[in-house]
Design brief:
The protein is built from three helices and eleven strands, in the order βββββββαββββαα. The protein is an alpha+beta fold and 192 residues long.
Length: 192
Amino acid sequence: MSSIESKDVLGDIELRVDLQSRSRVFQGGYLSVDVLRFLGEPPVIREVVQVRSGVCVLGVDVRGDVKLVRQFRPAIDRVILELPAGVRDAGEDALDAARRELSEEAGLVAGRFLHLLHYAHAEGYSDGWMDLFLAQDCEIAKNHPDPGEELELLSIPVSEFYARIDRGVFVDAKTMLAASYARQILSQRWGF
């Protein structure tokens, strides 16, 4: 059994279909697009976006403030508020990427990290995975975003962060999932 099949959710019927061909139709700096043709009558064709996997960090400083990033997201043509996040460099493990992104975007150095979740962020059309972390007892330093990365930082108390979560202020899944998975831990610590 291959490593991919060993991770399949088992059921009563076989749902995998044999791949007939795979062709690259686009290659960019961050993503590529492949067209997959599966055997069958009629043949099933799927487009798959290949991306580098990413990380997202809910960073809480020693005062109990959450550091948020306000930035323009061209794909949805909106300026949004979100947790620090980014893609993993080649060969970089998720925790190292989380430390790097937290420092680059938010200017925080974490004392303690907790891995919250590993999930497929767009499983219907992409092979990308996302790792979510909670970073606590963060020391405040100076952020140093990547060249060309324009962003604004906002620090708010943990209680205000969750009030905004509850009001639906955030539009990105990674921020909402990280908040959900960390809520009990942070409510016990910061009493909101």
